[in-house]
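Open question from group meeting: does this chain pack into something compact, or does most of it stay loose? Before anyone orders reagents, we agreed to write out a predicted structure and look at it together. Recording both the input and the output here so the notebook holds the full record.
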Amino acid sequence: MIKTIHLSILSIFYLYASGAEQLTAQPQTSSKAKVADLDRSPYDLAVAPDERFLVTANQFSNTLSLIRTSDHRLVDEVPCENQPTDIEFIDNTRILFTTKATGQIHQLEIDEDKLIVRNQVKVGGEPHGLAINREAGLAYIGLVATGEIAEVDLNRNRLTRKIPVGRWPKYLTLNPKGDRIAVGLGGESKIAIVDVESGETLYTEPLANGTNLGQMQTSQDGQYAYFTWMVYRTNPITVGNIRRGWVLASRIGRVRFDGPSYREAISLDVPGKAVSDPHDLSISPDQQTLIASGSGTHELLIYRLPDLPFVAQGGPGDLIDRGLQYSRERFRRLDLGGRP
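Structure tokens returned:
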């Protein structure tokens, strides 16, 4: 079984709760820049399996930051000139990240609280999104520009093949067995399930009027791939239609890995205080909590996962389920700022 790594809910909370002042200490860095003065705009975040470190990919500053979780200190930062986009831990000391502008993936290593760049592989096609089979030593990367998934051997440091899947495969996730990939095809408004061995698309699940497909996460039992997206209704943009959720609507959905079945979804928008731009998604290791970022409303959405009211055909409704809306045990919103 693949040791699937989920972002730790606790780690995310103390990263944001620690405050910016704790993350601006001057690190002993290989960069000569005064990194305390940089406008970083961290785009992606990864937590080490042992939770000793966080790493962030910073698009405005073109840097990678290493944060020690025990004291919330920025201990190292290295330059990366070409838009670091996605980042993930391979194990406790090795890190994989993409640079969209150059079409490469790179490996880093943590050595005595330092980030060391080890190697890179050219994959082309605007790489975006990472899924790692740690037991097999393989990484899968969405190539948005060419409509493919790249497979990279992490031990031999080489591109092994490209799998055609469809337009704009931006985010993807592996099932625990490592034999199927779920990938969001933003240019076709659907989720594709791909057989890893053959490279064939087994089936697709459409998302009617779907746009802005976000990050994906596999449930621990391998039954579902969860994801965020938005629905663009194409209705006239009026005050009444906006209130009814008939213009833009925010969703969390899931599709099955074990065979074709109509997608299931919940509505996120609260009447009078709608959610905007859901993007990131994570499930706690005990499978009890699902969190998503509402980027446009600068918040985290926190749900109790086991009893979320997912609906397939005929739903969900335009606005959040009433039972979910009024239960603090099942649904909470955490203001963060900064478009998470």
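Observations to bring back to the group:
Residues 1-115 form a domain with the Methylamine Dehydrogenase; Chain H fold (CATH 2.130.10.10).
Confidence is low (pLDDT under 50) at residues 1-33.
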